[in-house]
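User: Sequence in, structure out. Go.
Assistant: Echoing your sequence, followed by the structure tokens.
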Amino acid sequence: MTSPLIQPLRIQFDVKVPMRDGVLLSADVYRPASGDRFPVLLLRTIYDNQMPRYVDWARRFVQAGFAVVMQDCRGRFDSDGAWAPYVNEARDGFDTHEWIGRQPWCNGKIGTFGISYPGFTQTLPAVQASKYLKALAPIASQQDNFGHIYVEGVLHLHVAMFFINVVGRSMQREARALLNDNELYRRLPLISALDDIADIPFYRNVISHCTFDEFWKSYSLRDRYREIGVPALFITGWYDSLLHETLKLFNGFRKQGGTAEARNQTRLIIGPWPHQALGSASPPGNVEFGPPAEMDLVAEQIRWYDWQLKGVSNGMEAEGPIHLFVMGDNAWRHENEWPLARTEFTEFFFHSRGSANTGGGDGSLSRSSPTEEPPDRFIYDPADPVPSWGAQYQNLDRTGPRDRRDIERRQDVLVYTSAPLDRDLEVTGPVTATIYAASSAPDTDFTATLVDVHPDGRAINLCEGIRRARFRESVEKPALIEPMKTYEYRIDMWDTSNVFNAGHRIRVEISSSNFPRFDRNLNTGHQPGMDAEMAIARQAIFHNGLHPSRVTLPTIPR
């Protein structure tokens, strides 16, 4: 008797798929046990097309009436050729779409799926517009790699060094765990930090290209949405390292997509999850969201593709395009656009008597504009950076909603806290800090973190951002600053959806480092990543009538 968990299906291993240059890519094909032609779901991955998670997904997709093709990307695992990260995915993806569309078991309709890098292997080939490609389902994907690997021009260090995991044709799993990450991240200069471990040209190229130049533009989607004619179901989490990029993709498809279907049918799901635990009922961190947090992502994709590839009317077509989880309420709801049309952007201003250092300082946060107040000062030493803790940091042991009280004991962290709220306050949307600051250095960084302070004292981070002084106006044309001159810095703190419940307090932390999520600014003004020279920066944050430093929260009427 057949196990109810293992339905009959047909499998072909290592099917060779020819690319236009003659390179053969390896794919495994899964089909229902009976029937001739099916809509096909495609995964293109660098992580091994026999990864257990995706094999389980394939089984469930086949059970739902789809054929599945899971392909190793060029130069990875069983596929021929040499892997050049990202750059071949548009051509190879299109060639694979065309090959699948001509197979006798394909009914002419293709959808795609996959998480992270396999998300980008979906969106990038969409501009090639194969007639067989009908819809996408990218989970945790990006508009382009500059926005992912360089956040506002600041190196996403732990993301850049991820490529030490994918040296050669396979994943470096067991041996990689023997490396000391703390030592690895502190290596300087960054350009040669991995040279004694492996030859990784892409990593060196990343360090060499710290501005949005042709290296990044050559395969960016930010100006190409009008070439995309198919809709997408995007999935991400509030603590996902690709949250910000996924929101860019969603708005790009909805506002600039090349067809009415791409603009009107694109959907977005955002849960309370980090990158490594998307869909989880118990994501890591110091907050419990309860059973509502769990989502069966495979079931959601089946529902999506029943609608898009089979024409099934299952209610998805009538729902608001955004399905988001509101933390604090710990409940899901549908919305129509991002940011929400009813958003009231509300400013909370920084105040102190000049001693906002640490959580025990005199920093406060209120709706009242500052008048004459002394600035807050701290010293930023790149040899002793503020450690990354929580938020969208792509490290399973440190990601998610974390209690920041230990971080707030540092003298180089300024802390501004509101009075306890007398009623619930919902914050849903993009969060921005505007600070007026001076530094003794010709280049430095400023960071901002939004925190929900619970009545029991837990200081739970929601979202955070960073601004490098040289990129304050442009990520294409950097300009150093004049030491001790006051500049305005806008810090994009990404996005959240959280109800600050009555009795909770709103808090903003300001500092100059978030390491190793981001690389350290060495404060010298030299080309980032190219040397090991460090300098201390003396920082001043102003909050007065001429310099009203503040955080702008997207508040939602309740």
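User: And one key feature?
Assistant: The mean pLDDT is 96.
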